[in-house]
Amino acid sequence: MVASDQIIALSIFLVAYSLIIIRYQFKTYFLGCAALLYVVLGLLPVNLIPNSINWGVLGIFWGTLILAETFIISGVPACLASILIRRSKNLGLAILFVSILSGFLSAFIENVATVLIVAPIALELATRLKKSPVLFIICIAIASNLQGAATLIGDPPSMILASYARMTFNDFFFYHGRPSMFFAVELGAITSFFVLYLFLRKYKERIEKIEVIPIKTLMPTILLIILIIALSLSSIITRGRMEIPGVLCIGVGIISLFFLPPDAERPIEIIRRSDWETVLFLASVFIVVAGLTRVGVFDLLAQKIGNFCRGDLLSAYIVLIVIAIMVSALVDNVPFFTASLPVITALSLNFNYPRTLLLFGVLIGTTLGGNITPVGASANIVGTGILKKKGHPVSFFQFVRIGLPFSLAAVIPAALLIWIFYR
Question: Which InterPro entries is this protein grouped with (predicted)?
Fold first, then answer.
């Protein structure tokens, strides 16, 4: 491809990305327009579009989204949160335990949903004890972003990595006989939750007993367990292909709609208001990245990064993680992470770097880096939006004061563990 195609393709991508930073709520429209321009300008022929979109990843995302919605409606997450609060000795420990629960839930359900489940409980506690809810909601929001990279179904970047690297569900626990992303993320979780404890330990107020929120049905929980077992068993035969996991997730998600409590809205309404916008956003990401790959932009970027690092593996590892953190702190991480995958592959081929090390490192930086700022992740945007509606606006640096040490405490140990086992 001629250099002009590379310039045009990269320019369109950067303009779309810049617009997403300025008007995040229109991210799907901006990236969709970029994908359309790629096709109109001939950067990606129409006949290549179906193969450019990873349908398995879209299936996993949508299916787990529906299952997560029914899981929330079942009342199990809210029940767990209320039980943790009842058993806490003071306010600080209550918020810490609820934040840990948010982190755990985020490994299996959408991060924004986690915030919407737990935030009202934290707001009620703050109101009862006449405390500002700002720190509490920020802790819950950043904790909900923490463990999406721990499992294949936790976050879109994990799904995309699994498809790209032909990883199975089990590979997120042990990859080629070595501890994988799950253990790296959990190590980061332990150290980062200690940071939250340091922020919350001053809240010694006793909590009045709150009512335990009742569970309406256990079926979505049972189906979630069945899905995890099915994905684990399917790892034996799928060899990293996403079609079977995608069908499994869609199937379990649809089945869960038949076990809703009597007072729940109709299944068709749940399907109608599910996050179709993000499905279209992911499809647009795949098309744009396919166009950039076709014109050779990623090979060029890989060569530049390799030359900058002078072929040194540790330098390349650190540089890629730092870039991932910085980008993810400012804008949606899905386009960046998807675009970084072919760059990493080119780097590993041109400079003989271990590809898995760089892939895992960038995933860590991408998923955990979004916790630094209030605009780095959807959960942060929702959390600060809730606070603003309640009359507690959060400044950019007020959020960073908590998010930055939390993120560093999560990224550094996780990246170190990956370096030890995969260099």
Answer: Arsenical_pump_ArsB (IPR000802), Cit_transptr-like_dom (IPR004680), Diverse_Ion_Transporter (IPR051475)
